[in-house]
């Protein structure tokens, strides 16, 4: 399974580090220096991208896999740093009056503090973004100060970190610039539509067409929301898109429910009757390299979807892609079933037109779709089910 594979991979990484720690180590002081070098080596993969999304996309990994690898190397680097500090304290007379020692402790402390940031991310995403980047820059500086007077060329590691980070950030910036700026147009345009229950729909018009797949995310920044958000991008799942004859999307739709920070400010400050300039970058996920061609959802005869509330935003793209594949005879799916439990009335209103597009996409549709105005939706009791029982018709019905 995936979890067993990750455990095995993590233990393998620790085993390799342990072997390198002990192989032909002559004394305790040598082991301490070896641990320091291993800590620096384990830090190299952590600077392979200005963001996890871009790094995962560039390497062909899913975001989940890349995040696991990022955390694994971070843990290995921290363990090696702790071993190095412990051995140095044991074998030498450490003085905090020496800058080299102070910066070494600072670098190790910053690495340790990075493991607290995920708890901040769950509460205040904007603070997490700034703090994580600040810690990355601070640890490079602290390592440089700690190693620049050390014998040999170990100080080059900090230069390597800075070079890798600079190159990947520049690559990401140039990619984003290409996606957002053309000769005819400058930046994307975003329109907002709010529904009861804080459900919100964003429609983004793109300067350049994108090839969109189900399950992909886009990073969005709207400078009008506030100057503090102008240089921040936030990830959203693409819920819908319309393609041209080349199969590329000129616009896409996002469904969301504001929580705090950027999304809440966006709902408060953007007006439904206006268009606002926005930065977009993406698309990210699923894996940019298909490692398992036979794992495509269209290879299953029956596909079952179940979701609640705003979670419909993650299901619509897969249903759309399945219907596209059925029309093009590229999938083997014979039956599609969606069960959706509504949390708020706005959930249905925000997705109603998109569901109707799915219905119209199937030429065999003949049944009647009840509207919310005619049939009020009791919360937590109503389900909407889409089925394709014979691969020739699509029906939408409401169950109480």
Automatic annotation (TrEMBL):
The chain crosses the membrane at residues 68-89, 101-120, 127-144, 150-170. It catalyses: 2 a Fe(II)-siderophore + NADP(+) + H(+) = 2 a Fe(III)-siderophore + NADPH. The keyword Signal applies. Keywords: Cell membrane, Ion transport, Membrane, Signal, Transmembrane, Transmembrane helix, Transport. This is ferric-chelate reductase (NADPH). PANTHER family: FAD-BINDING 8 DOMAIN-CONTAINING PROTEIN-RELATED, FERRIC/CUPRIC REDUCTASE TRANSMEMBRANE COMPONENT. It is a multi-pass membrane protein. Residues 170-293 form the FAD-binding FR-type domain. Pfam families: FAD_binding_8, Ferric_reduct. Residues 1-22 form the signal peptide. GO terms for molecular function: ferric-chelate reductase (NADPH) activity. It comes from the Eukaryota. Its main location: membrane. It comes from Penicillium diatomitis. GO terms for biological process: copper ion import; intracellular iron ion homeostasis; iron ion transport. SUPFAM superfamilies: Riboflavin synthase domain-like. It is an enzyme of class 1 (oxidoreductase). It is found in: Cell membrane. Its EC number is 1.16.1.9. GO terms for cellular component: plasma membrane.
